[in-house]
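Hello,

I think I submitted the N,N,N-trimethyl-histidine job twice by accident. Can you confirm which output corresponds to this input? Input:
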Amino acid sequence: MMEPVADPECATLAESAITIDSCLHDGRERSLADDVLDGLTRPFKELPPKHFYDARGAELFDQICELPEYYPTRTERAILQASAEELAALTGAAELVELGSGTAAKTRMLLDALHEGGTLRRYIPVDVTETMVRSCAEELTSEYPGLKVHGVIGDFERHLDRVPDPTGARLVVFLGGTIGNFPPGSRRRFLREIARLLGPGDHLLMGADLVKDPQVLTQAYDDAQGVTAEFNRNLLRVLNRELRADFDPEDFDHVALFDREHEWIEMRLRARRAHTTTVHDLGLSVHFEQGEEMRTEISAKFTRERVEDDLAAAGLELVSWLTDPEELFALTLARPPR
Ligand code: AVJ
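Support: Only one job matched these inputs. Its output is below.
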């Protein structure tokens, strides 16, 4: 059925409508090890949020998206619902490149609209989770006759160069507000990398969570059922399994706070007692003071001005600013200047 092609960097598996490039191999484990070694030996301990999403983490994140307190997912979905047709008309996209595609649940609204508009030919999901890319490729090729899917199994921070050359007007989508996970400098660098995927006539559609009442924000990251707390602590289970660390997740409390100066949410894990943990694969022992906090995520909140400035720094201009009536969340359509 699928024939592996000999390519040591990125193996390609191809069948009629589906192409899958894999860029992962052992690179992912190395990046976790490097991130943990750096992050846990800093004066203020920190781990990057991208390692939350193992199978359990992805499941917990799906639960977060259904929580009453967590408005971003349903709000973005409603905005997409209301504007998919307009976006399809504005972009006339023949191909949709999605960064962090996951189950592509929200993407279907765009695919539907582009399909209806008669322009859609190819979908290019980029995601670290191989099973997601594969199952979504299979579902979508059977749902949309004639659609080609070229999946890239990789980390969008490292493997954007593996996105195949464009075959027509392109729409790159980066949904969910994940752009907020980047601190400001890296954010602009990343947007510049995305901009390199765009030629004249191409567009970027990006979701951005907006600055709002701090209480609404902190509740979204510290829900009553404790799902987000579990999601946060799950990061320690990832380290235990992948790097043979011996964290007891119950040694840590979940903390979510809104940093008003930077206008971002921070999630942290706070040590309940002084203790030392070993990360066996790294030969590393890490001491935590009682009450010591380790940062596990920033999730920046935006204003229109901030989005416009960041886009401009990446050489992109804002075309449409689409938001919900309460202005909780925004979808921004941008393009290279003409
Ligand atoms: C997937 C990065 C958009 O920042 O809101 C949800 C992750 N963390 N609850 C976000 C998350 C805690 C989410 N993003």
